[in-house]
Structures are given as C-alpha cells and as structure tokens.
Amino acid sequence: MAEADPMISHADATALEAAAPPAPRRRWARLALMLSLPLLMLIAGVIYWQSLQGRVSTDNAYVHLDKVSVSAQVGGKIVEVRVKEDDLVKAGDLLFRIDPEPFQLQLAQADASIAGAQASQASLAGASALSGAEISAAQESIAFARTNLARQEALWKKGFTTKAAYDAAQHQVAQAQDQLEIARSKTREAAAKLATGSQVPGVFPELAAARVQRANAELNLRRTEVRAPISGRISQADRLQTGQELVTGLPVVTIVATEKGYVEANFKETDLADMQVGQPAEVKFDAWPGVTLKAHVASIGAGTGSEFSVLPAQNATGNWVKVTQRVPVRIALDEAPPRSLIAGLSSKVTVYTDGRKR
User: Could you identify which of 40, 97, 156, 225 might form a hypothetical disulfide with 80, taking C-beta atoms 3.0 to 4.6 angstroms apart as the criterion?
Assistant: First the structure.
C-alpha cells in the first residue's frame, strides 16, 4: 500500500497494520453473542416454566359474603326504625318495629274467646241433661203410666171402665217411653259436646281452639319487632322509612355477614387436573395492593358456569366452536383480612396443587 501511495510512509503503514484487530477474533465474538442471546432466552423460559409447575392461578375471582334478606312476617306500618345504611348489628338486635295495635286487639279478642269457651264448658257441665234429672223424671213417668195402665186393664176386664180410658192409659205409657229416649239423647249430646278428643285429651275443644287463637295472636304481636337474624352490616336500607306500609314476605333490608367471607374463583377446566379440596392457596385483592391472605380450596363446583346460567349454550345445531369452560371453585380464607371484606371485590387466586406453599 505504501508503494501505491508515495504520500504514506512505510512507518505509518506498519502502525495501521498493528492497530487493526485480527479478523478471526472479531468473527468469534460476533458468533458467541448470537448464540448466547437465544440460549439465555431458553434458560429464562425453562426457569419460568418450572416456576409455574405445581400451581394454577386465575384473576377471574371475586369476594362473596353471606347475605340475608330481612322481611316482615306480618304486614303493617313501620312506626320505629333503629338502624340505617352501613350500620353494624349483632344477631338479635332490633331493626324496626311495626304498628302493634292491630295485633294487640287480636290478642284481646282471643282472650274473650277463651272466656266464652270456659263459660260454655261450665254451662254444659251444669246442664240438667248431664245431671240425669230428665232421665229420672222420664223413668218415673213411665212407672206411673204403667201402673195406671194396669189399673185400667183390670177395670176393663171387669167392665168398670171405658175403652177410651184404657186406650188413653196405653198412650201415656208410650209417651213416657218416648220422653225417656229424648232425655237419654240429650244426655249423650251434652256429653259429646264436653268430650275431649285424642289430639287434645282432657281439654274442652272450644277452649283448646281459643287458646290456639291466642297463641297465634301472641306470635304475630312478637313479630311486629323485627330483629337481626345474623350479625353483619346493614345494606339496602332505603325502604326502611317510618310510615312505610310493609307487605308480608317482601324483603326490606339486607344484612351482609362481613365475618364469613370467601372467594369464588372461576378456573379453566384445564387447570383442574391436579386440583383437590384442601390444597393451600393464596389470595390477593385488587383493592388492597400488597395484601396476601392464606387460604385453601374448600370445594370444587359440580358444574361449569355456563351449565347453571339462565340460558345455557345449545351446541347441538349450527356451527360449533369449542370454548374452554370455567368451573367455580370456593376458596376459604384461613386468616382475617386487615380490613372488612366487601362483596364483589376482584381478586387473584393461586392454588398450589403440589401441596407446598411458596
């Protein structure tokens, strides 16, 4: 090169040749870089794949809380409200009160029915039909009529009486016998009215019916005070207004049991191969970053979500596209959350199918 260009000296050409790196070393470095990058990606992929073994996760999971809809068991107007939206209540606390006056009147009417039944029982017990007086009188009448008939018969045979008098004596005997049957019938009827059946032995039936009526009136009066069936937080209390007319059985307020929460995670059917009840799990909440709760698999659903939908899919006709189904899995929390759970919160659930919590 120095011979071709007289401007470049021999010393300068020697320096340039010494500064240039060998061509083979450069090619090996480039080749090593090209091979190491895919190798590192392969190693990273293997490590990530191994990290996923023994566990399955889903973010299609939501918090569920037990909810009880409270309704009035008797109809009437609300006269007092003790709770408001978002209040915490305990089981047995008074929620609201319905006007008790109509039911107090029903109770008074039932007491009057009991008094009437007692008076009727006493009247029947003291009736002459049960005392046997009418039967005794009828038997005495029969005895007198038969004596008179015997006398008339003796006189008739001797010719000292008329045929009419003899027939009248016979008629008196027949009448007395009829009176005896009537008296006995009245006695049986009175005894039947006082009789006690096998369902309420020893109790006058009318009195038993009146007592049942009173017990029902007392029950309805107690039901005018509507109390919390469970402990929890009040929700949907907008219809709890003083003066509101309630209809029996119509829900007016909901109590959310904040202490009994669980998570329903919808796992893909392909994730259920190694999943079993009792396996450890962990739950993370979108609302509370950094909060992770220990949990376990409580139950695995008996059907997919689409199977229990209002309009299940019908794949028998038309074009069919296979869709991976999801199965609801109940996840029970093993520790209390730092804050009160809210129904419907989104969460992420990881189940360790190898049984080892990481």
Answer: 97
